[in-house]
Design a protein that fits this description.
Layout: H1 10-23, H2 33-41, H3 43-47, H4 54-57, H5 70-84, H6 116-134, E1 139-142, H7 147-152, H8 159-172, E2 178-183, H9 186-192, H10 198-208, E3 213-218, H11 231-244, E4 248-251, H12 258-271, E5 274-280, H13 295-307, E6 312-317, H14 324-337, E7 342-346, H15 353-362, E8 367-370, H16 384-391, H17 402-417, H18 433-436, H19 440-452, H20 459-472, H21 482-495, H22 500-504, H23 514-521, H24 533-539, H25 550-553, H26 559-570, H27 576-584, H28 586-599, H29 607-612, E9 619-625, E10 628-640, E11 645-652, E12 655-662, E13 682-684, E14 689-694, E15 701-702, E16 707-713, E17 716-721, E18 726-731, E19 738-739, E20 744-749
Parallel strand pairs: 1-2, 1-8, 2-3, 3-4, 4-5, 5-6, 6-7, 7-8
Antiparallel strand pairs: 9-10, 10-11, 11-12, 13-20, 14-16, 14-19, 15-18, 16-17, 18-20
Helix pairs in contact: 1-2, 8-10, 8-17, 11-12, 11-27, 13-14, 14-15, 20-21, 27-28
C-alpha cells in the first residue's frame, strides 16, 4: 500500500499525511503505521532537516508507544469481563440473556414543546417561583433518573439506560416540573463503581432534554461529598454544575443548620439558577412527646431560609416519616408563613407515602417528587402514575397525559431487571422505618455494605443498632452525611460485637470510625441541642472541637496548585470539571482516570455487556457518536498461556480482532498473616476493606491513641489507633492492600519488650 499527501505548504502536507496514517487500517498483518506517524511528527522531519541517514541517526524513532483507539480499549474491557468478571457483580448469579428495553419511538424531528426550562429563561428565578406559587395544578418532579434508583438499587443505574429514554421526556412529558438527575450519591458511585464521568452524563442528558428543568441534590457545604469543603471549593463546584446544565439546586444541610447552608445557597444565587432550600424532616410533629422537632421548629427554619434568598422551600422527608396528617399540617403552616412555593419530597418505605403526597396536595403544596411506576415504592418515591390518576379531573390535576407515562413505565420495567442483583431483600412497605428512621437512600446502600462486610444475615441487628446509635447521638437529623455517621457506627458496633453500654463506657477503649470522630469534632456542623458531652469527650479523647461553621476554619484551596498536582498524577491536562471531581473525591477520581486511560469510555456499552460481557455469537452495537457505531461479536475464548493470559477473539465491524487479558484466577492467592489476639503488639483489621492510607512508618515511635492507618470499606473509613505506646516494628499491610477482618496490619513493640 502507498499513501501520497500533497498540499501548498510542507506543514499542511504533513498534517494531511498524519491524518491519512491515523485513519488507515490494515488487518491481519503487522504494519509500520505507528513508526511512520512518529517519523513525520519528529521536529527535524517537519523542519526539513533530514538526510537519507535520518532514521539511522535518530534511534528515538523506535521508542514506539502504540496508540489505542476506542474500539480496542472497549474490546480490552469486554475481554477482561469475560475472563475475570466485573467485580461489581461478583457473587451475583449470571442472569443469562437479558431482553432489550423497549425504547419508545420518538423521532428527533417531532415537535419540541416549551417546558419549564424555557419558562425559567423567560421569567428568571424570582419570576419562575411566582409562577410556581400561582399554579393550581400539582407540579411533579420525576426522580427516576437519580433518587429512585439510588434508593432501590444502590445508585447503580448507568448512563446508557438513562439516555435511551430521555428523548421521550423532552417530547412527550414537557409538563413535568423537573427531572431530578444529578448530585447525591450518583457523583461518587458513577466514578467509583460504574466507571463513568458524572459530568458526561449531565451533558448527554442535557443534549437530549433541552426543555425541562434539571434538578440536583447539593449537600450545602458538603457539596456531593461526605465532609465539609472550603467555601471556595463549594462555590467552584456549584459554578461548574450550573454551567454544565443544572437548573434547580435542592440545597440542604444534614443538621438543618441554616448557617451551614448559606455558602451553597449564595453560590446557587450567584450562578443565576433556582435555589430550593430544603428542610430535612425527622421525628413526628403529631407526637406531643417528641418536642425537639415540632411544627414551630420547621416554621422557624422556613422563615430563615426565605430570608436567606431561597426561591423555593423544600420539605425533604428522606426516611418517609411524614405521615399524611403531618404532611397536611406542615404544608398548611409553611404556606401560611412563607411566600415562596413549597416542594415536597418523601420516600415510600412505610408504604403509605402516596397518601402523604395527596394530603400535601390537598393542603396546597406546589410541587411533589414521585418516581415512574416500576421504579417507585419501597425505599423509593411514591408512584408517579398513580398520583397523576388520583388527581385527574380534580382541582390539582397535573395535566400529564397517560400514554407517555405508560411508555416510560414499559421501558423502566425491563431496565430494572438489569440491576436485580443490587436490590435489597425488602419486598413490601416496612413500618419499622418509624422506629429506626433510616433514610430511603441509605437503606439499600447500607444493605450492600453489610453484604460486603459479611454481616448480611445480621441485618435486623444492624437496624436495631442504628436506632441505638441515633439515641446515643442525641436524636439527630439523619441524612447524608449524618446518616453515614449513624450507619458507620452501627455497622462498626455489629462487626465488633459492641453494645451501646460498651460505647458509652469511658473505660472501654474503642477505635471509632473516622466519620464519627469528624462528627463529634464539629466537621459537619452543630446539631440542634448540641453534642452529648460525655460521648463527645470519649470519641475525641478529650480533644477540642469546633464551635463555629466548619468552613470558617478551613483555608481556601489554591485551585491552580491543586490543578498542577492533579495533572502530574494523571499525566495530562485536566478540565475544570475534572478538577471539581478531584476536589470532591481525590483518590476515586485518580483511580477513575487510570481506568479511562486503559479502557476508555465504557458508558457507551449496553448494561448487560458492561456487567456480564457477551454471549457466544451475540452481536453488540455500540454507538460512539453520531455516525460512528461499532459492531462487536465474540468468536472464541482461548486457553491460558504460560504467563496466565488468555486471548479473546472478536469480530469488530466485520474484521477479526484479538485482545489478551490476564486471568486473575491463575495468580496464586496471597496468604495474609492473622493477628494473634494473645500478642499485645499485633494490630488486626477491625473490618474488611482496603488500606486507604498509612500514617506511620517502620521504626517510628507512636503513643497510645495515635492513628496508625485507615481502612476504607464501602465508603466507610475506619481509623485504626495504637492501643499502647511503642515503636512500629513491622508494617505488614501496604497502602492499597485488601484485608479481611483479623488480618495482621502491623506490629507495635512496647518500650519494655
Amino acid at each position: 500500500e502507498k499513501i501520497t499527501a500533497w498540499a501548498p505548504t510542507p506543514e499542511e502536507a504533513v498534517a494531511r499525511m498524519d491524518r491519512a496514517l491515523r485513519e488507515f487500517r490494515v488487518r491481519g498483518v503487522k504494519t509500520n503505521l505507528f513508526f511512520l506517524e512518529g517519523l513525520i511528527a519528529h521536529p527535524r522531519f517537519q523542519a526539513g532537516d533530514v538526510t537519507t541517514r535520518f532514521i539511522d541517526e535518530t534511534p528515538e524513532l523506535f521508542d514506539l508507544e502504540q496508540p489505542r483507539d476506542r474500539g480496542t480499549r472497549l474490546l480490552d474491557f469486554i475481554g477482561d469481563v469475560l475472563v475475570n468478571g466485573n467485580p461489581e457483580v461478583a457473587g451475583h448469579p449470571e442472569p443469562g440473556r437479558l431482553p432489550a428495553a423497549p425504547v419508545p419511538d420518538v423521532p428527533y424531528h417531532s415537535r419540541l414543546e416549551q417546558g419549564t426550562r424555557d419558562r425559567l429563561r423567560e421569567l428568571g428565578p424570582e419570576g419562575f417561583a411566582r409562577w410556581m406559587r400561582a399554579q393550581e395544578r400539582l407540579l411533579l418532579t420525576d426522580t427516576s433518573f437519580r433518587d429512585a434508583h439510588q434508593s432501590l438499587m444502590a445508585t447503580r443505574m448507568r448512563t446508557y439506560d438513562l439516555l435511551q429514554i430521555a428523548p421521550l421526556y423532552a417530547r412527550k412529558l414537557p409538563g413535568l416540573l423537573s427531572l431530578e438527575c444529578w448530585g447525591g450519591a450518583t457523583f461518587d458511585v458513577a466514578m467509583r463503581f460504574l466507571k463513568e464521568d458524572p459530568w458526561d452524563r449531565l451533558a448527554a442528558l442535557r443534549e437530549r432534554v433541552p426543555n425541562i428543568l434539571f434538578q440536583m441534590l447539593l449537600r450545602a457545604s458538603n457539596a456531593v461529598g461526605y465532609t465539609n469543603y472550603p467555601d471556595n471549593v463549594v462555590r467552584f463546584f456549584v459554578a461548574q454544575a450550573a454551567e454544565a446544565g443544572v437548573d434547580l439546586f435542592r440545597v440542604f444541610d444534614s443538621l438543618n443548620w441554616v448557617e451551614n447552608m448559606r455558602v451553597g445557597m449564595d453560590a446557587v444565587l450567584e450562578a443565576g439558577t433556582l435555589c430550593e432550600a430544603a428542610i430535612c424532616y425527622t421525628g413526628d410533629i403529631l407526637d406531643p412527646a417528641r418536642t425537639k422537632y415540632d411544627l414551630a421548629y420547621y416554621v422557624d427554619i422556613a422563615r430563615q431560609l426565605e430570608a436567606a434568598g431561597a426561591h423555593i422551600l423544600g420539605i425533604k422527608d428522606m426516611a418517609g416519616l411524614c405521615k399524611p396528617e403531618a404532611a397536611r399540617r406542615l404544608v398548611r403552616a409553611l404556606r401560611e408563613e412563607v411566600g415562596i412555593p413549597v416542594h415536597f419530597h418523601t420516600h415510600d418505605t412505610s408504604g403509605v407515602s402516596a397518601a402523604s403526597v395527596l394530603a400535601a396536595a390537598d393542603a396546597g403544596v406546589d410541587a411533589a417528587d414521585a418516581a415512574m411506576d416500576p421504579l417507585s415504592g419501597l425505599t423509593s418515591q411514591p408512584n408517579l402514575g398513580s398520583i397523576v390518576e388520583a388527581l385527574r379531573h380534580t382541582e390539582r390535576d397535573t395535566g400529564l397525559a397517560r400514554e407517555p407515562l405508560d411508555e416510560a413505565a414499559a421501558y423502566w420495567e425491563v431496565v430494572r431487571r438489569y440491576y436485580a442483583g443490587f436490590e435489597s431483600d425488602i419486598r413490601a412497605g416496612a413500618s419499622e422505618v418509624y422506629l429506626h428512621e433510616m433514610p430511603g437512600g441509605q437503606y439499600t446502600n447500607l444493605r450492600q455494605q453489610a453484604r460486603a462486610l459479611g454481616i448480611e444475615d445480621r441485618w435486623r441487628e444492624v437496624a436495631r443498632t442504628y436506632t441505638d446509635v441515633n439515641t446515643m447521638l442525641g436524636d439527630i437529623v439523619k441524612v447524608t452525611p449524618t446518616s453515614k455517621v449513624v450507619g458507620d457506627l452501627a455497622v462498626f458496633m455489629v462487626t465488633n460485637d459492641l453494645t451501646a453500654d460498651d460505647v458509652l463506657d469511658p473505660e472501654h477503649e474503642i477505635t471509632f470510625p473516622e466519620s464519627v470522630v469528624g462528627y463529634f469534632h464539629g466537621d459537619l456542623g452543630q446539631p440542634p441541642g448540641g453534642f452529648p458531652q460525655q460521648l463527645q469527650r470519649k470519641v475525641l479523647k478529650g480533644g477540642s472541637h469546633l464551635k463555629v461553621r466548619p468552613g470558617e476554619e478551613l483555608e481556601p484551596v489554591e485551585l491552580d496548585a491543586v490543578r498542577e498536582e492533579l495533572q502530574e498524577k494523571v499525566g495530562r491536562a485536566v478540565t475544570d470539571r475534572e478538577l471539581a471531581s478531584y476536589l470532591m473525591y481525590p483518590r476515586v477520581f485518580v483511580d477513575f482516570a487510570d481506568f479511562q486511560r486503559r479502557f476508555g469510555d465504557v458508558s457507551v456499552l449496553p448494561t448487560p455487556a458492561f456487567f456480564w460481557g457477551l454471549h457466544q455469537d451475540e452481536e453488540l452495537a455500540v454507538h460512539l457518536e453520531a455516525g460512528k457505531t461499532l459492531f462487536i461479536r465474540i468468536l472464541a475464548l482461548g486457553d491460558h498461556d504460560s504467563e496466565g493470559y488468555r486471548s479473546i477473539y472478536f469480530e469488530l465491524n466485520g474484521q477479526p480482532r484479538e485482545v489478551r487479558a490476564r486471568d486473575h484466577s491463575m495468580e496464586p492467592a496471597e496468604a495474609r498473616r492473622k493477628a494473634d489476639e494473645g500478642h499485645p503488639g499485633h494490630v488486626g483489621a477491625p473490618v474488611s476493606g482496603m488500606v486507604a492510607s498509612l500514617s506511620v512508618a517502620e521504626d517510628e515511635r507512636v503513643t497510645k491513641g495515635a492513628v496508625l492507618l485507615t481502612i476504607e470499606a464501602m465508603k466507610m473509613e475506619v481509623e485504626v489507633f495504637a492501643e499502647t505506646d511503642g515503636v512500629v516494628e513491622e508494617l505488614v499491610a501496604e497502602d492499597g492492600a485488601h484485608v479481611d477482618v483479623g488480618d495482621l496490619l502491623l506490629v507495635v513493640q512496647a518500650p519494655d519488650d
